[in-house]
Each structure stands twice: as C-alpha cells, then as structure tokens.
Amino acid sequence: MPSNSSAFRITLLLYIGVLLIPLGFFYTYSNVQESAPDISTVRKLGQVGTEMLIFTAPTPTKDIKKSIQKINNNLKEIETWVNTNKQSEFYVGGRTIQADFNIVKQCWQKLNKSPQKENIFHCLKALNSLSFTIEKMHTLKENKIKNMFYVNIIGTLILLLLLIYFVRSYIEIQLKKHAIHDHETKLYNKKYLMAELKSTCARSERYDYPLTLLSVAIEGLKENNYDDTERIHLFEQLGGILISMVRSSDVACRYNENHLVVMLPFTEEKNAEILRGRIAKQLETHDFTLKSKPNFKLTLIGFKHGESPEVCIERADRFLKE
Fold first, then answer.
1. Is the pTM value of this prediction over 0.70?
2. Any idea where the domains of the chain sit in the sequence?
3. What is the pLDDT of residue 2?
C-alpha cells in the first residue's frame, strides 16, 4: 500500500507539472487580452483628434453634428478605460491618468462651445499628451507581461526537470528495493538471502536435512585504501570466483559491504569444508591485479534446528569478527 501511495503521489506531481505549462500560457494570454483595450483607447484618441479638425474649416459643414456625436461617444469609452486604469502602476505622467483625461474633457467642452483655433490646438496638444502616456503605459505593461512569460516558462521548466529527477530517483529506489541481485558482484543480495534462508531453514528443520553457511569476508578492506575503481574490480572478480565454484543448488549472496555468504543446502559441515578449502586456495592464488593483495577469512556455520535465520547469520558474523 505505501508503495502504491508513493507511485500515486509521483504521478500526481507529473500531472501538475504538465498542467502548469498550459496554465502559464493561459495566464500570459489573459494579460495580453487585458492590454488590448490600451491600443483601442489610443486609436479612439486619434479619432477624436481627427474629428476635432473639422472645427478648423472656414465654415461649418453639414457633418459637424456627426463629428460631435463621434467625439462624445469616443470620450465616453475613453473615460471608461481611464476609470479602470486610474490606479495603474504603469502611469508615467506628472499628475494622474484621471487628471490628464479631465484636461482633454474640459478642453472639448470649451471647444464645443467656442470653436476657436487656439482651443483646437490646445485640445490636440492635450490629446497627444494623453495618447503618449497611454502608449507608454501599454509598453511598460507589455514588458511586464513578457518578463512574466519568461519567468513562467523558466519556472515551469525547472519544476519539470525537478519532477523528472525525483521520478528517476524514485524509480531507481524502487528498482533497488525490488532487485534481488547485487550489481557489483552479480550475486544475490541480502534481501534475497534472508528470504531464501528463512524458507530453507524451515525445510531443513521439517525434513531434517543439513544446511551449512559458508561466510567469506575481506579483512582490512578499508585499511587497503582501494579507490572506487579498484573496489568494484575486486568485488566483480570475487563474485565471479564464487559463481564458478558453487553448485547450481547453492545460493551465493552478498550480505553486506565486505561479507559474502554461500548457502549450502543438503550439505554437512564436513562436506562443506572441502568447498571452503577449494575456494580459499583459489582466492589465495588468484591475481586480483590490485596495488595490495586482499586477505580473506572463510568460516563455516551449520544451521541448528530451532534457531532463527537471523541468529544463524549473527553466529557467522561473530565468528568472522573473532
């Protein structure tokens, strides 16, 4: 159950990481959509300025009422935008966006009542100033959106890389957890040894057949100061020697860092002594091609009916340390 729960959490994290990518794009798209009215407002300001130029004509034209209506409609829409953005962090003027718009609005009211040339130029100047401010605000807003977009992409990629790393680590842990072989010696590992020893001890006790353990330990492994390459080379050769010399019914395992165990079912200690002597001779004469020759200690332990597999292994450890 815990393993399934861990796998579920890892899968959930992967789904979250994958969903973050479209969410990041949607967030950026939403910000871009929010900045679209800025362009529309600048365009409406330009239309207002164009319609105001009709007042420069020597005589009023028949379309002046339509122009006034267009200006009023555009100013209402611009006012809506101003009310929405009056607290904007991107404002770059010397007053407020509301104050800048009020100047344009008051200028238009004055121009509408008194369409004199100086009023027209004053309004166009106010319009240009407001248009420049909005364009600048839009540019700053776009820059922020771009920066947030890049930050979102980088953050999402980092998160995905971390998720990939954690998933890979999780898979490696699970593989090691469920593996039954030691990678260095190519022998079975401790987990497999204890599982087999438990069932073999039970059969030995039930059917009253002998069971012997052959322990092989490397003495002074740390004192020899082997580097990683030499240590791996040593255990590869040691595992190969044991595999080549034991029977197919025997179980050769790596118990811990420098302790290997061969489980010999249907074998009494006196018969196991023959195998111990052959292995000891092979280890003594074998050229490990290391800077210092390793020393080995071999011990035989007979399983006693009534004791647990753990006690049997502990006896082997105790003999090796003597």
1. no
2. 2-174, 190-321
3. 44
